[in-house]
Amino acid sequence: MKHNNKIWIVDAFTNKPFSGNPAAVMIVSDFPENAVSIAAEMNLSETAFVKPLRDGRFHIRWFTPIVEVTLCGHATLASAHILFQENLVPDNQITFDSLSGPLHSKREKDGLVLDFPLQKTGKQLDTSVFASALKINQDNIIEAVESSDDVIVMLKNEDMVKQLSPDFAKIQQITTRALIVTAASKTYDCVSRFFSPRIGINEDPVTGDAHRKLAYFWSQKLQKMVLSAYQASPRGGILHLQVQGDRVFLKGEAVTVMEGIWKA
Q1: What are 200-212's pLDDT values in tens digits?
Q2: Distance separating alpha carbons of residues 131 and 160, to the nearest angstrom
Q3: What residue numbers bound the domain in which 59 lies?
């Protein structure tokens, strides 16, 4: 069946092209059966498919090039950006129905805010296996903790995080989904990188979902509810986090870099 859907590429968590995290956004009347194939063709970490339901409410699904995922922060930000850009929202509020429940976004003067569920950390883990996968000495790891289907590994300093050249095959063997590596920062409250070869993403440039977990982790460490974060991938991206009860508000900017028509 031939389609004729508009599709955009948006750089999320940035205010300039070719930085932040790119996501494809397609607005559909029905979700395509070949969504994974479309995501593979786009060859970005995530492609979001957005189905209008009624004024200000949409159904959203996210796909990597190999699998559907239950939540994606940067592709949600990108989707909200497109809906506002195309004047498809009656006011400054959006609700997305998703596999992770209702997600909310609002437009403010200095960016878009995502309202996501906060994810608490779990049990402490043996750091030796992560040292091997990250190709660093074990004594450079302060701790490793479970966070839902990810693991947060805290290193001694931000330079170690930025200089990592991990073994992706080993990361794929030892993770359920992803490894989030983080450290305190002099410029921000924290820096991080996100490695997830298990779902087809060796390194994600800027990961909103990971910051649901980092927001809880660092709010406990620093005893503060408002945090600034930098994801230190080669593209890089800045997030502003606010913890309120069992929710976290992620604020960032986005910029459209491509618009086209999907015909296949």
Answers
A1: 899 999 999 999 9
A2: 12
A3: 5-116+251-262
Q: Tokens representing 80?
A: 């909200």
Query: Same domain, yes or no, for 235 and 257?
Result: no
Exposure pattern of 31-66 as b/e (b: 16+ CB <10 Å)?
ebeebbebbbebebbbbbbbeeeeeeebebbbbbbe
The sign one gets for the Cα dihedral 67, 70, 73, 77 is positive
Task: Report, in angstroms and rounded to the nearest whole number, the Rg of the chain calculated over CA atoms.
Answer: 18
Place of tokens 């607005």: 27
User: Is there a contact between 70 and 100 (Cβ–Cβ < 8 Å)?
Assistant: yes
How far, CA to CA in Å, does 143 sit from each of 29, 70, 99, 140, 234? 46, 27, 30, 9, 25
Q: Output the CA torsion sign for 253, 257, 261, 264.
A: negative
CATH number of the CATH domain containing 137: 3.10.310.10
Per residue in 29-72, pLDDT (tens digit) is 999 999 999 999 999 999 999 999 998 999 999 999 999 999 99
Q: Which of 46, 158, 203, 253 is catalytic?
A: 46
pTM given for the model: 0.90
46 as an active site residue: the answer is yes
